[in-house]
Amino acid sequence: MRSILILNAKGGSGKTTVATNLAGYYAAEGARVALADFDPQGSSTDWLAARPDTAARIHGVEAHQRGLRVPRSTDVVIMDAPSRTHEESLASLLKRAQTVIIPVVPSPVDIRAAQRFFGELRALRTLVQKDVKIATVASRVREGARTTEDLEDLLMDVRLPSGRRFPFLTWIRQSSNYLKAAERGMSIFEFAPLATAADREYWQPLLRWLASARSIPRNG
Ligand SMILES: Nc1ncnc2c1ncn2[C@@H]1O[C@H](COP(=O)(O)OP(=O)(O)O)[C@@H](O)[C@H]1O
Ligand SMILES: [Mg+2]
Fold this sequence. Notes:
Layout lengths: L1 E5 L8 H14 L4 E5 L5 H8 L7 E4 L1 H4 L9 E5 L6 H10 L2 E6 L3 H16 L2 H4 L3 E9 L5 H10 L11 E6 L2 H9 L8 H19 L9
Parallel strand pairs: 1-4, 1-5, 2-3, 2-4, 5-6, 6-7
The site of adenosine-5'-diphosphate has 18 residues, from helix 1, strand 6, strand 7 and helix 8.
């Protein structure tokens, strides 16, 4: 079973947006998907409740209450982390994941918070003891925003204690399609291709990375 954690201690960084769109993408591809909501606010759970019966089925797990119990036949579990995850709860989430995606918004406040968060991740020894593949994406990116360059500089150079870099994969554009998708329990990949082509395009490096051996730990 593939396990992918969407993580960032900062609220509003796009975790639930990335988690739900990824879940919808894999489900539409025919995979058996579980969406594990670790956030007591329950945004992923709400999204799933709005999902139409006609859409590909996704198994919801209220993991913050019941722990991570997924059906044995699950192909992919997407874990939506709560904001303000630190120390033990951070380590415990990391232990469950093969792959971690960290969305970061290009704003000065978010960039500073991300810097601190990367420091925290580095300080967690679990990261070096167990191989977890981590990558970053820029999230809610507005065309031409100046802070986008600062974020790119930061994300290009985030390293693990081993000296290995976290790959920076792509920009996820700010787009009303994500708001529509959030409201309807859908992913942008389940809307008419023409209406979402520009947004989908930016997901390709992330989807390719997730499909490649580079995002899967050798022992995991
Ligand atoms: N790429 C995007 N384009 C437009 N709105 C977005 C995008 N990503 C997130 N949002 C919106 O920003 C808000 C915060 O995003 P969310 O995914 O809930 O973040 P988090 O789960 O990290 O708190 C939500 O209202 C969401 O719909
Ligand atoms: Mg969320």
